[in-house]
Amino acid sequence: MSAAASSSSSLFQPSPFHLAPRKPHKCSHRLKLTPIRSSSAAAAGNDSPAPPAPTKHRRPADQNIRQEAHLLHTSSTTPNHHFSAKYVPFNASPSCTESYSLDEIVYRSQSGGLLDVAHDFDALRRFDGAYWRSLFDSRIGHTTWPYGSGVWSKKEWVLPQIDPDDIVSAFEGNSNLFWAERFGKQFLGMNDLWVKHCGISHTGSFKDLGMTVLVSQVNRLRRLGKPLVGVGCASTGDTSAALSAYCASAGIPSIVFLPSNKISIAQLVQPIANGAFVLSIDTDFDGCMRLIREVTAELPIYLANSLNSLRLEGQKTAAIEILQQFDWEVPDWVIVPGGNLGNIYAFYKGFHMCKELGLVDRIPRLVCAQAANANPLYLHYKSGWTEFKPMKANTTFASAIQIGDPVSIDRAVYALKKSDGIVEEATEEELMDAMAQADSTGMFTCPHTGVALTALIKLRSSGVIGPTDRTVVVSTAHGLKFTQSKIEYHSKCIPDMACRFANPPVQVKADFGSVMDVLKKYLSKSS
Ligand SMILES: Cc1ncc(COP(=O)(O)O)c(C=O)c1O
Ligand SMILES: N[C@@H](CCOP(=O)(O)O)C(=O)O
């Protein structure tokens, strides 16, 4: 049975760990949060040149934060129309005049190529890097709608023209940049290693960053009267979870195409619980992707995969956030696991915008990491970027990146070339070992993060990444979505895998002597 298939089917069988469920805690305290808003025009969405000096106040009791933002937005004397964005063909020549309003429903250029969201850089450049740094910094840690979100705190660079009223947000982003002190020291001899935990998020993956943008725009389109009956995606489990949650929160129907028996139970249950229309299709992700593209070309269902460049506008904010978390100092390396290959470009775009607009003076080198069982980008890179060949992806524990025909291949190649980037791969054993090693130092990572960590281990051992290089590994999903793979690893029941870092529980008889014997043996080994 495949790793991913067994993840789903064996979940309800008795656990090898024999752990009793815990009693829930009774919670007697509730935190009361007093929303704070900045009185400055900048924080209200205007184009004020001066960064805000926040003033604390209490909004009227009968007003919620969305209404408060609405009042600020409509009463402002300087409408937020200075900044704008539109679709253009991806990597088009400067003489190309083809463009589309973001209010059009379009996913491809006239020639069938990818699109990109182009911002009006002349308008953004009217403010210097110090202004933008200070504006973005001023919005962190507040509940002001919609800037409490790590994505919408960069609204002017994301969807500048959307009305805050149309935004569908779970205050996503602002994820932990974790100093991996022990992992870096113990396994790599590194002192400046960081893990950007994008999976510690509303639906447990970085997809929330893009989905808030896409679903907000759909909300706007429906309000403008566009005949959209729903939003659809093909998914390996994370895009579908994010789409269904954001749609449910806005009351918009969502339709998800999932490859049967190829995603974890935790991922499968997310769209089911959020009320999506779930189609389990007897094919792989690439097959689902082809089908959703055909369906969205026929029916008024909006396409939510990252082929739709709106998604990447949200995802790029993770890069801006990393710079912000380092006080606008640029790391040397950023390592991202790649599947459909939208995210690696999103990271490039976020870093590139910060450089172009004067917030930083360079960009980091990017590494894209793939599972060896689904490695079309890696093979393309190794061939010296000669002809790209889609492949049939094989089963991998990193099931969310089991993709053989990535829609954003051109974007990924562009990002890697522009950032002096590298592509690495990880075998099943390497990625599972790396995940277990990271977990043993206090993280709880997903197999995709294991792929990125393997890339780091390889580049460190070949000396490409130095011991003091500031390096960020992007963790893309929460480990709790992939517990079955951890159970199999720690139970040492994966065929042809040594599971070198397995830590299985010890079965002990319920008497003092037996427990003492086991503990003494353990303590003598560890001292
Ligand atoms: C957990 C996880 N990590 C990494 C990726 C890869 O992202 P991308 O498809 O943008 O390359 C995905 C989805 O593909 C994912 O769900
Ligand atoms: N891992 C993804 C695959 C689809 O990627 P997308 O970014 O194009 O939506 C998923 O979780 O479905």
TrEMBL record:
PROSITE patterns, sorted: DEHYDRATASE_SER_THR
UniProt-listed GO biological process terms: threonine biosynthetic process
CDD domains (UniProt xref): Thr-synth_1
Superkingdom of this protein's organism: Eukaryota
Catalyzed reactions: O-phospho-L-homoserine + H2O = L-threonine + phosphate
UniProt cross-references to InterPro entries, sorted A to Z: Cys_Synth/Cystath_Beta-Synth, Ser/Thr_deHydtase_PyrdxlP-BS, Thr_synthase-like, TrpB-like_PALP, TrpB-like_PALP_sf
Alphabetically ordered keywords of this record: Allosteric enzyme, Amino-acid biosynthesis, Chloroplast, Lyase, Plastid, Pyridoxal phosphate, S-adenosyl-L-methionine, Threonine biosynthesis, Transit peptide
Protein's UniProt keywords contain Calcium: no
Low complexity bias spans: 1-10
Domain Tryptophan synthase beta chain-like PALP: 169-476
EC number: 4.2.3.1
Cofactor(s) of this protein: pyridoxal 5'-phosphate
One GO cellular component term: chloroplast
Pathway: Amino-acid biosynthesis; L-threonine biosynthesis; L-threonine from L-aspartate: step 5/5
Cellular localization per UniProt: Plastid, Chloroplast
GO molecular function list: pyridoxal phosphate binding; threonine synthase activity
Bias (Basic residues): 20-32
N6-(pyridoxal phosphate)lysine found at: 207
Region (Disordered): 1-61
Biological role stated in the UniProt entry: Catalyzes the gamma-elimination of phosphate from L-phosphohomoserine and the beta-addition of water to produce L-threonine.
Family: Belongs to the threonine synthase family.
Subunit-level organization: Homodimer.
Protein name as catalogued: threonine synthase
Record lineage: Eukaryota, Viridiplantae, Streptophyta, Embryophyta, Tracheophyta
